[in-house]
Structures are given as C-alpha cells and as structure tokens.
From TrEMBL:
<dbReference type="GO" id="GO:0046872">
    <property type="term" value="F:metal ion binding"/>
</dbReference>
<dbReference type="Pfam" id="PF03328">
    <property type="entry name" value="HpcH_HpaI"/>
</dbReference>
<dbReference type="InterPro" id="IPR005000">
    <property type="entry name" value="Aldolase/citrate-lyase_domain"/>
</dbReference>
<comment type="similarity">
    <text>Belongs to the HpcH/HpaI aldolase family.</text>
</comment>
<dbReference type="InterPro" id="IPR015813">
    <property type="entry name" value="Pyrv/PenolPyrv_kinase-like_dom"/>
</dbReference>
<keyword id="KW-0479">Metal-binding</keyword>
<protein>
    <submittedName>
        <fullName>4-hydroxy-2-oxoheptanedioate aldolase</fullName>
    </submittedName>
</protein>
<dbReference type="InterPro" id="IPR040442">
    <property type="entry name" value="Pyrv_kinase-like_dom_sf"/>
</dbReference>
<dbReference type="GO" id="GO:0016832">
    <property type="term" value="F:aldehyde-lyase activity"/>
</dbReference>
<dbReference type="GO" id="GO:0005737">
    <property type="term" value="C:cytoplasm"/>
</dbReference>
<keyword id="KW-0456">Lyase</keyword>
<feature type="domain" description="HpcH/HpaI aldolase/citrate lyase">
    <location>
        <begin position="18"/>
        <end position="210"/>
    </location>
</feature>
<dbReference type="InterPro" id="IPR050251">
    <property type="entry name" value="HpcH-HpaI_aldolase"/>
</dbReference>
C-alpha cells in the first residue's frame, strides 16, 4: 500500500512507463507481465472514465505493477475521489497558473498541509481501515505531478515549481506546441526553447521532470534529466503488432504463391 513510484524516484531511478488508454484490465495485466512495471491510467484521453479508471488500479497492482492516474480535471472532488479510491500517484493536466497549482496541492493532502476531505477509515486507500495510520502518513505517500503543457504554464513554471506539495512537473509537448501555434510541430524552435526553459528551471529548483517520447526518444530524455518517461501506450503497441502480423502473413502467402 506504500507508494512504489515515489520511492523509486527518491532512490534515483529513472522510470519508464506506458499509458493505459483502452480501459481494459486484461490489457493492464498483459502490459505489467511483459515488463511495464508502471502504467499511467489515462482518465483524460483514455476510454475509461474516472471510476472505471480507478478500478483499473486493482488490475495493475494485482499483476505486480505500480499505477499512476492521470485525472480528467483538477477539481477538488475529482482529486479527493481518486485518492480515496486508492490512487497514490497523480498526474494533473493543464496546470497553467501558480494559483491553480496551489489549489491542487491543497486538495490532495490532509491538514495542516492541505484541505483534503477526511474519510480515512472507510476508503480503499487505507485498506478500508486496515492501515490505521493512513491519515497520519497519507501526505507522505501522495505523489503529485502537474502538467506543463501550455504557453501560460511555461511563463509561470518557476512559481509553479515553488508550490509546496508538487513533486514533479510533467511536460506535455503536443499541447504546448499547439498553444504556441505549432500544432504537431514538436521540433519548432520556439517550442524546443520553451521546453528547455522548463527543464532548466526544474534543474535549478531541484524539481523532478517527467514527459513523453516525441521529438526526443527515451534515451535522449533520460540524458536531459527526465526521471519519468512515458514511452508508449497500449493502443499503439497493439496497432503496431497487428500491422506486423498482417504484413508477415501476407508475405508468407506471397512467398508460397511465387514458389508454386
């Protein structure tokens, strides 16, 4: 019930992860059992809504993995519900101002650090009361990553990183590029410069950085200091394997026809 992701990052590890987009518990199990030790359950763009997505935590953990949850919105009710249902590592999208960052940080931790609503003894997060010290220890177990994915967030990045309770900034290059007038142009010079500005600010602030493969692959991101790298997703993995299988079967048939 402890936060394995947070501990691995504190130990200096660079974590690779995969998005879970289909909302399938079977796919979650397959991904973990084939080597993806961390899955990010995507309740923003994925097929699973919040409640269904939170249910997928069970499949990930039962297979031996660690689950992160990207929530669909930064509302107090959403974040409270996610934590109560057992999410320990959260990614919050589109955090564009220091005021928004402060609110989010306060929503996910109990007083005196924050204002998270109390139901510790009856929620899944505490094992339905089996973890009697959950209320006292929950603040330490939460891992909060906020997404920097808009030009406004880049301007406020240093202030956002200074907010107590934020553990990581997670750079979203696609939406950032779109907000700067360079939709799907991740290598546009000013987009690259904006990401570099956030990366440098994070280095100066000793703040963890996460992100996704895009213009840079996993190796390059690791070289540039990223500590959580979401490298793939279940939809793309299935689509690529499907294309390869179709091509292999057609090629085998063509060889037989040519030989006959």
């Amino acid at each position: 019930m402890r936060n394995g992701v947070k501990r691995r990052l504190r130990d200096g590890e660079t974590i690779i992860a995969a998005w879970l987009e289909t909302g399938s518990p079977e796919v979650a199990e397959i991904l973990v059992r084939t080597g993806w030790s961390v899955l990010v359950i995507d309740c923003e763009h994925g097929a699973a809504g919040l409640e269904e997505g939170l249910g997928l935590i069970r499949a990930v953990e039962a297979s031996g993995g660690d689950a992160m949850v990207r929530v669909p919105d930064p509302s107090e009710a959403t974040l409270k519900r996610a934590l109560d249902r057992g999410a320990r590592s959260l990614i919050v999208p589109m955090v564009n101002s220091v005021a928004q960052a402060r609110d989010i940080a306060s929503f996910v931790r109990y007083p005196p650090m924050g204002r998270r609503g109390y139901a510790a003894s009856i929620v899944r997060a505490s094992g339905y009361g089996a973890w009697p010290l959950y209320g006292a220890e929950a603040n330490e177990e939460v891992f909060l990553a906020v997404q920097i994915e808009h030009r406004d967030a880049v301007e406020a990045a240093e202030e956002i990183m200074a907010v107590e309770g934020i553990d990581m900034v997670f750079i979203g290059p696609n939406d950032l590029a779109g907000s700067m007038g360079h939709f799907e142009q991740l290598d546009a010079p000013d987009v690259v410069a904006a990401m570099s500005r956030v990366e440098e600010a994070a280095s100066q602030a000793d703040m963890l950085v996460g992100g996704i493969e895009g213009a840079r692959d996993c190796g390059a991101l690791g070289r540039d200091g990223y500590r959580l790298i979401v490298c793939s997703n279940d939809v793309s993995l299935l689509a690529a394997a499907s294309r390869d299988a179709v091509a292999r079967c057609k090629a085998a048939l063509d060889r037989e026809k040519a030989a006959s």
